[in-house]
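Lab manual, section 2.4: Encoding a predicted structure.

Procedure: take the sequence of the chain (213 residues), apply the prediction step described in section 2.3, and record the output as structure tokens. A sample record is shown.
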Amino acid sequence: MSELKTEEEQIEAFKNWWKKNGTSLVLAVAVGVGGYFGLQAWQNSQANHISEASSLYQNLTEAAADLDKEENQKTVRFIAQQLADDYDDTGYAVFSQLFVARIDAQAGDYDAAESALSKVVEQSEDASFDAVANIRIARLQAEQEKYDAAMTTLSAVSQAEFAGQVEELRGDILLAQGKRKQAREAYESAAAAMGEDAQHPLLEIKMKDLVKG
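Recorded output:
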């Protein structure tokens, strides 16, 4: 455990150092190698690289608008793989895995879907995308009746803006386990987190069904 802590501290120290010195270091190397024109070429290359990834991702999202079509599913998988192969240093490669996971889940291949979502958690530096991926992983686990695993996955989502979704899914899992009282409490927590002005008909139906029961 102490070795792991030391390694984490080293990684964190490197991240902090890179934030302070990384940009200037890259610029210094670029200037030293190619001077002003070399730096300008490098900047243009980086801009083009990101622009290409953005364009591919836009094509992917357009195809993902209707995933009932097999042709669109193939397009999403093809572009996602291209992003992973050639643009894995951009966020677009990570985000594309959310769509791949949706296709796999629709096909009933939960293992593949969970694997794609796990890549998002592992590679993303955006806490919101991590939360989205973890909630979807928990849903997949619940579908397979892996209730303990689903609860553990949900516990990794701590952002307040996702509290409503987390509590509602927690309620679904508890209800599937026959824990009706705890499920109702989770649904009530979900409703409270979403706010009085929010409209969530399905959640209301779930709560009413428990009251009737």
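Check your result against the sample. The radius of gyration is 22 Å.
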